[in-house]
Design goal:
Order of helices and strands: EHHEEEEEHEHEHEHEEHEHHEEH
Number of strands: 14
Number of helices: 10
CATH superfamily of the largest domain: NAD(P)-binding Rossmann-like Domain
Strand order of the largest sheet: 9-8-7-10-11-14-12-13
CATH architecture of the largest domain: 3-Layer(aba) Sandwich
């Protein structure tokens, strides 16, 4: 029987730390097969992201992106994730698109932070006050419960709204000062030009980059990559596709061996010293949507038992 998992009810019982454990375990299985299909009717888009992991199942994450909906106060993105059985191909669940995206995106970054950030990290800076930033506040708060959070945003109004929604968060006016003071910097912006400079980074910091997803997008400059030990969630979905790494690789600023590991070698996600600057590029990918959807369904079934 196919179950329908909506956003609010689907969140009940979910745990950020358990999710990261599930993501790590998912990478012990055979490497996922991933395929993306885009259909366009300017300015609208239909996106299908498919993944198949032997031993876990299949998932198709489908989304419609209609930018002009915003002018009438409607959501820009609608979608769902179809999760299929690995044993017989049966449709097991239809999950809310935003539920899977929220937990996948922040959980992806948190898995790296749990391995790369110093355990005594107490000052966390969130760059970008959007929806993803709010999810990061929840996720990082679960792993670093004693941490103090600060947010920086291009617009003061956005930062103020974020602080109202996320109790205890301070607002930073000067990004450079805020970066230098942080133990962890997690960035989720829509910028195409770097907003974070490697010259600002301090020994021992962990840098988490989420925002850039197109070939023309970057959140950090070349110096940031050169000063850091660099990791990614997936070589396949980042190196040749996202400007954060695609651009410096094409110019020769870095070489492929500068990126040390992805999650299929999660044991390599570790510091060599407390002075390391570690940097993680969150590229996403349908295989992570599949892993997250399977975790959500497992929790859902446990609640129904």
């Amino acid at each position: 029987m196919t179950v329908m998992i909506p956003f609010e009810d689907g969140q009940k019982g979910l745990d950020w730390l358990q999710l990261t454990d599930a993501l790590a375990a998912g990478h012990d299985l055979p490497k996922g097969k991933v395929e993306d299909v885009f259909l366009y009717r300017d300015p609208d888009t239909l996106l299908n992201r498919s993944a198949w992991i032997d031993g876990m199942g299949l998932a198709i994450k489908c989304a419609t992106i209609f930018p002009q909906n915003r002018t009438s106060g409607q959501p820009m993105i609608h979608g769902a994730v179809n999760l299929f059985s690995d044993a017989n191909g049966q449709l097991e669940a239809i999950l809310d698109f935003h539920l899977v995206t929220k937990w996948k995106t922040a959980g992806d970054s948190l898995l790296a932070a749990r391995r790369l950030a110093r355990p005594d990290s107490r000052r966390i800076l969130i760059v970008g006050a959007g929806t993803v930033g709010r999810s990061l506040w929840q996720a990082y708060g679960a792993a670093f419960p004693q941490a103090e959070f600060t947010v920086w945003n291009r617009s003061a109004a956005g930062a103020q709204a974020f602080a109202r929604d996320c109790p205890g968060v301070s607002i930073a006016d000067d990004l450079e000062v805020a970066v230098k003071a942080a133990d962890i910097v997690t960035s989720a912006t829509m910028t195409t030009e770097p907003v974070l400079k490697g010259a600002w980074f301090q020994p021992g910091q962990h840098i988490d980059l989420i925002g850039a997803y197109r070939p023309d997008m970057r959140e950090v400059d070349d110096d940031a990559l050169l000063r850091a030990r660099v990791f990614v969630d997936s070589f396949d979905t980042t190196l040749g596709h996202i400007g954060e790494l695609k651009i410096p690789l094409s110019t020769g600023a870095i070489t492929k061996d500068h990126v040390l590991a992805d999650y299929y070698d999660v044991a390599s996600f570790k510091r060599t010293s407390d002075a390391d600057i570690t940097l993680f590029k969150n590229g996403g990918g349908a295989h992570l949507d599949l892993m997250t959807s399977r975790y959500i369904l497992d929790v859902w079934k446990g609640r129904q038992a």
